[in-house]
Amino acid sequence: MRITLLLGLLTISLMSTAQSIQPSPSELTKHITYLASDAMKGRGTGSKQNDQAAKYVAKQFKKYGLKPMGTKVYEQEFIAKVKRVVVKDSIRQAKNIIGFLDNGAEYTIIVGAHFDHLGEGRQGGSKAEKPEGKIHNGADDNASGVAGMLEIARYFSGNKVREAYNFLFIGFGAEELGLLGSKHFVNNPTIPLATVNFMTNMDMIGRYNPDRGVGIGGYGTSSQWPQVFDGIKGTVRFFTDKAGSGGSDHGSFYAKSIPVLFFHTGGHDDYHQPTDDIEKVDVVSEAEILKIHLQLIEKAMSFPKLDFSEVAS
Ligand SMILES: [Zn+2]
Questions:
Q1: Between the N and C ends of the chain, which has fewer C-beta atoms within 10 Å?
Q2: 194 C-alpha vs ligand 1 centroid, how far in Å?
Q3: Sign of the CA dihedral 223, 224, 225, 226?
Q4: How many angstroms separate the alpha carbon of residue 143 from the centre of ligand 1?
Q5: 275-309 tens-digit pLDDT
Q6: How far is the CA of 7 from the centre of ligand 1 (A)?
Q7: 3-state SS, one letter per residue, for 124-137
């Protein structure tokens, strides 16, 4: 009787542990609400709020027990030169935030998302008619991707499994100024690039449209992706795209001959506008997209290090 009860309690507690580390709409909402609030003023590179966003990411990494893998604890600082000068400053302090999940493995999977956005419309890139002084909240672009990256970090750091690969989680800075954070990282890597299995990037994954499905790019960057994708199913639709570069930070890794994946729910009228707000983000679908992402990572870990293929352009 007592043993049965204990076993029952143990089963329930194991089940609730397994349940609670799954990507959760409420966790996603928490992260996106923080990052995309008006108080964060659009997380423009060089701003106090951009710094605050970086600190927020570092704080979560610490909470998940990730090992700091920047050059200054979790931070890897770099100088962002703003080419398209909208204000006088053309040089800004920027940073990546980097955390490592050490499984004692030979190779590492990099999971990334950029945390910067367009600030108050003075750094270029806005599609608004008069962008100056307007907060570009960037809820989809890319608080949604950062929240996704944090949920994947929470999953692998909390699942009590020692995976066959290590994980490096990176919040990139200055993506909106030309992928500057990821370019800085691949040219100044804090782990040897030769030990990277593949890199997976999330940029704008909060606007799931069932008619389109979520796009997963990078399908052509390893001859083994088709085998990895085989049999992967979820509650949301997805389609694959071969391209290894284009539009976001995974392109910097592809340029270094590293296989990549890129998750993206597609463009919309609020893209790079002050109206890219949290109310329009679909966190329930985002959590389902992340479950597909987790399946793909888990499946890829059953393979040896993936080979790299160049995609014909
Ligand atoms: Zn973006």
A1: N
A2: 27
A3: positive
A4: 9
A5: 999 999 999 999 999 999 999 999 999 999 999 99
A6: 47
A7: CCCCCCCCCCCCCC
Cα of 141 vs centre of ligand 1, distance in Å, is 4
Q: Which of 173, 123, 120, 113 is nearest to 143 (CA)?
A: 113
Cβ-count burial 8-35 (b if 16+ within 10 Å, e if not):
eeeeeeeeeeeeebebbeebbbebbbbb
Which CATH number applies to 24-300? 3.40.630.10
User: Would the CA dihedral through 99, 76, 126, 138 be positive or negative?
Assistant: positive
pLDDT grade for 5, boundaries at 50, 70 and 90:
low
Q: Where are the domains of the chain?
A: 24-300
The two structure tokens encoding residue 185: 């990282």
Output the CA 113–ligand 1 centroid distance in Å. 8
C-beta separation of 177 from 86 below 8 A: no
From the centroid of its chain, how far is CA 165? 18
Cα three-residue angle 254-258-263, rounded to 5 degrees? 60
Q: What is the pLDDT of residues 86-144, one digit of tens each?
A: 556 578 899 999 999 999 999 999 999 999 999 999 888 999 999 999 999 999 999 99
CA 260 to centroid of ligand 1, rounded, Å: 16
Give me the pLDDT at residue 166, please: 98
**Ligand 1 centre from 65 Cα, in Å?**
27
